[in-house]
Write a structure and sequence with these properties.
With about 425 residues, the chain is an alpha/beta fold. It folds into two domains: about 250 residues, Metallo-beta-lactamase, Chain A (4-Layer Sandwich); about 160 residues, 3-Layer(aba) Sandwich (Rossmann fold). Helices cover about 30% and strands about 20% of the residues. It has twelve helices and 24 strands. The strands form five sheets. It has a seven-stranded mixed β-sheet with strand order 8-7-6-3-2-1-24. A seven-stranded mixed β-sheet has the order 9-10-11-12-13-22-23, covered by helices on one side. A six-stranded parallel β-sheet has the order 16-15-17-14-18-21, with helices on both faces. β2 and β3 form a beta hairpin. α2 packs antiparallel against α6 and α5 packs across α7. The longest helix is centred in the N-terminal third of the chain and has 18 residues. The radius of gyration is 21 Å and the shape is globular. This is Exonuclease of the beta-lactamase fold involved in RNA processing.
Length: about 425
């Protein structure tokens, strides 16, 4: 058995891992990254005819965005949770609308992808063919996200996709207690290998206090958010802490809110989620959008890095008013307007310089395990278990690997280049 890293090796994003045996191939995720011009960057190619099955951990495009490319001429069985597939369908359709001229697939391939899906239920083993068994568990990252335990040729492999072991308002932490203690290999994301996230209760308190201060001062708060996961978490946090001003939800987050609401059994607090949907105001058109910030209110809108979408409309309108707030609850990549305003206090949008006079703050509402959680997760396993760290920057992760080695966990592999291949002896 061999493991080939098609993407996500030595980089954050475009995760794709191939488990190869003499008779089959199992693909774990197949995502895209985006370059400085916002063009998709794909993982290394894999021939669909070499695959027995595909497992998709969750619907974020850095894990799912290249999958339809595999469904141009074949129908490889695709295993994922029903919510992940429903969200992926929406994400693909949106990606084609925004970047279709860069993508090597169309809505026809998306349709083929969806029709190849076989639903997974947390905790129920599934035979995916050629002697491979797969069991999914809640990953705690976004609604529908899943870890996988794979049994193949007498070996046990754990694949995390993206995961979070800490409870949030939206989800319970990952079901790590269901994972075997002595798997042969664990393939895990280590996005935040060098950073611990703040305690959740402290973070929420500071965030809500800042929001209320702006609102009580007569201003409005723009919260640019990732449409899937972050927007829902922010909405729940505001409602949970009694923010009674109008809360508007715009862009793709509106549809995602409704889809997630149809899966209450996957949520940490279904009643809070229902209340949040009831009290929030969807922005269905330009008319409502123009009036949203005329009174003190909170506006949750994609894109999370202000690269486009409804958030860009509000940012242009609100950034110059000292009464307003622009609060960023997401990671901001270099070369994005969000990163520019945090580092320089202004952003260049459509050739124009927009100076931020509004109150500007960043809050670490990450949906990934932080360094402490990653270390604790690794120490759940036997020191003989081989650990492969993906979806991380090698320079960032190296100190964690060194520390774990000193603690007796010296079987950790940190790849640096897509295409690397490992054999299990």
């Amino acid at each position: 058995m061999r493991i080939k890293l098609l993407g996500g090796a030595g980089e954050v994003g475009r995760l794709a891992v191939l488990i190869k045996t003499a008779s089959s191939g199992l693909l774990l995720d197949y995502g895209v990254s985006f370059d400085a011009q916002d063009r998709p960057v794909f993982p290394l190619h894999v021939r669909p005819k070499d695959l027995s099955a595909v497992f998709l951990s969750h619907a974020h495009l850095d894990h799912s965005g290249a999958l339809p490319f595999l469904y141009i001429s074949t129908r490889t069985p695709l295993y994922s949770t029903p919510l992940t597939m429903e969200l992926s369908d929406l994400m693909y359709t949106d990606a084609i609308k925004l970047s279709g001229y860069y993508l090597p697939y169309t809505l026809e391939e998306v349709k083929e992808t969806m029709s190849s899906a076989i639903p997974l239920t947390y905790g129920e083993p599934v035979d995916v063919g050629n002697g491979i068994s797969l069991t999914a568990y809640n990953a705690g990252h976004i609604p529908g996200s899943a870890l996988a335990v794979i049994e193949v040729e007498g070996r046990v492999v754990v694949f995390t996709g993206d995961f979070n072991t800490v409870d949030t308002n939206l989800l319970r932490g990952a079901d790590v207690y269901n994972l075997p203690k002595n798997p042969d290999v664990v393939i895990m994301e280590a996005t935040y290998a060098s950073a611990n996230h703040p305690p959740r209760d402290k973070l929420e308190k500071e965030f809500v206090q800042s929001v209320k201060e702006v609102l009580e001062g007569g201003g409005s708060v723009l919260i640019p958010s990732f449409a899937l996961g972050r927007a829902q978490e922010i909405l729940l946090t505001l409602v949970k802490h009694g923010v009674e001003y109008p809360i508007y939800v715009d862009g793709l987050a509106r549809q995602i809110n409704q889809i997630v609401g149809r899966y209450p059994h996957l949520l940490k607090d279904p009643s809070l989620y229902k209340k949040a949907l009831d009290v929030s105001i969807e922005v269905p058109n330009t008319y409502v959008r123009k009036g949203a910030a005329e009174e003190p209110s909170v506006i949750i809108a994609p894109a999370g890095m202000i690269k486009g979408g409804a958030a860009l409309f509000y940012f242009k309108k609100m950034a110059g008013n000292r009464k307003n707030g622009v609060f960023l609850p997401s990671f901001q990549a270099p070369n994005t307007p969000g990163f520019q305003i945090l580092s320089k206090g202004y952003a260049i949008v459509d050739g124009a310089v927009i100076k931020v006079e509004a109150r500007l703050e960043w809050f670490d509402f990450s949906a990934h395990a932080g360094r402490g959680e990653l270390e604790a997760f690794i120490k759940r396993f036997s020191p003989e278990t081989k650990i492969i760290l993906v979806h991380t920057d090698p320079a960032t992760a190296a100190p964690l690997v060194k520390k774990l080695g000193e603690d007796g966990y010296d079987n950790i592999y940190l790849p640096t280049t897509p295409g690397e291949e490992l054999g299990l002896q």
